[in-house]
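Colleagues,

For the teaching module next term, I've prepared a clean inverse folding example: a structure given as tokens, and then the sequence designed for it. I'd like students to try predicting residues themselves before seeing the answer, so please don't circulate the second half yet.
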């Protein structure tokens, strides 16, 4: 039995089909050869056999049959009933109807025989006992390739798939289904293919693996390079490694796809160069607020030089600026020397502009202090009153955000 359909026009052109005449004389139906096989119809009254059935998605006239080879190519003789004998004492003849060998309907799932009507089949279970499927009856005709005629539980004969699997058999060869490949890393989709009587292949596809930075979803979770891209080893893209690991006071970070440095307290990236990390560390010469400031000494008039600080600095990093430096000293005008008290700040040419403030005697209100800008390469002198008491000095960078790791020079003198 061949498993493909002929076009209706081709079928109509075929003549000379053999058939046994009916022994019944009570119907006008033609039980033998017909001339209208596969002719489109709307009802049995339009057919010589009085049988209009579904075939190839339309309804066409069929014909009765009694054994193998009587139906046209693409059709088979589907058992229907036992005819009454023509004469008393005669033997009843098994009669069938030519129905299509529809590969979509054979072995389809079902819950009752009506669902198998297209192929004239019956809703049966497989020998494995799983599910119900439309099976061809093989009482009057041969089974298609890949199927074997065997007795069912009801005693009738049916075409069972040799694979014992209705989802994959000779009629389903080439069918593809989805499957999954899983392990400890995840689950990836795959496919299995029906090889006809050889059954289904094993699941084919990529096995899940550990995620690596390669632009591929290695563990099939729907994300690409997750947990890797955007880290210090793969910042803007795979293998874009952020510099600074292992350097003093430095932690490299990746922020929104860009490498940066996270400097420890007291460390600054003052040259905006990640190669050397947070290379500038603040000194501890001065206090960083008015509360913690410690007196640098008690000075008397006419002592000439009271303070000379040359190693202190205000660091400025690419992402933050060091705090201001605070100093204080006590001044005693015992001899009423004719010289004046002076506080000087020198900023080197390679440095950045500083902001320099000096208080009056015993004045802790910074709003009252005398403040000046000291540009690079210059020295500014502030002359407070010579009253006795405690004086405060504050030094900071004039423009926060500028890079600086150059010390300043601070002097308190009388001249």
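(Answer key — instructors only)
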């Amino acid at each position: 039995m061949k498993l493909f359909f002929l076009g209706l026009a081709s079928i109509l052109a075929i003549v000379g089909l053999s058939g046994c005449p009916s022994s019944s004389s009570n119907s006008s139906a033609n039980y033998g050869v017909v001339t209208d096989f596969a002719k489109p119809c709307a009802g049995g009254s339009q057919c010589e056999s009085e049988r209009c059935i579904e075939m190839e998605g339309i309804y066409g006239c069929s014909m009765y049959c009694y054994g193998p080879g009587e139906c046209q190519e693409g059709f088979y003789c589907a058992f229907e009933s036992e005819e009454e004998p023509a004469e008393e004492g005669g033997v009843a003849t098994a009669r069938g109807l030519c129905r299509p060998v529809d590969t979509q309907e054979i072995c389809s799932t079902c819950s009752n025989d009506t669902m198998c009507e297209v192929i004239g089949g019956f809703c049966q279970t497989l020998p494995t006992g799983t599910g119900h499927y439309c099976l061809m009856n093989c009482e009057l005709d041969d089974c298609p390739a890949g199927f074997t005629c065997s007795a069912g539980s009801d005693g009738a004969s049916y075409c069972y798939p040799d694979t014992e699997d209705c989802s994959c058999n000779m009629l389903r060869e080439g069918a593809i289904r989805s499957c999954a490949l899983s392990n400890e890393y995840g689950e990836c989709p795959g496919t299995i293919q029906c090889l006809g009587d050889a059954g289904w292949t094993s699941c084919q596809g990529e096995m899940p693996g550990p995620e690596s930075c390669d632009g591929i979803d290695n563990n099939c979770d729907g994300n690409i390079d997750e947990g890797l891209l955007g880290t210090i080893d793969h910042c803007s893209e795979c293998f874009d490694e952020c510099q600074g690991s292992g350097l003093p006071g430095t932690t490299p970070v990746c922020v929104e796809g860009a490498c940066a440095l996270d400097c420890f307290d007291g460390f600054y990236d003052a040259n905006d160069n990640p190669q050397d990390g947070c290379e500038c560390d603040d000194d501890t010469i001065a206090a960083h607020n008015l509360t913690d400031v410690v007196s640098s000494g008690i000075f008397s008039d006419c002592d000439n030089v009271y303070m000379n600080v040359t190693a202190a600095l205000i660091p400025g990093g690419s992402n933050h600026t060091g705090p201001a430096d605070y100093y204080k000293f006590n001044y005693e005008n015992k001899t009423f020397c004719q010289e004046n008290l002076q506080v000087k700040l020198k900023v080197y040419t390679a440095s950045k502009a500083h902001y320099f403030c000096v208080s009056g005697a015993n004045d802790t209100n910074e709003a009252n202090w005398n403040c000046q800008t000291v540009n690079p390469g210059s020295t500014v002198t502030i002359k407070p009153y010579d009253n006795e008491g405690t004086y405060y000095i504050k030094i900071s960078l004039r423009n926060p955000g500028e890079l600086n790791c150059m010390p300043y020079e601070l002097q308190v003198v009388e001249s």
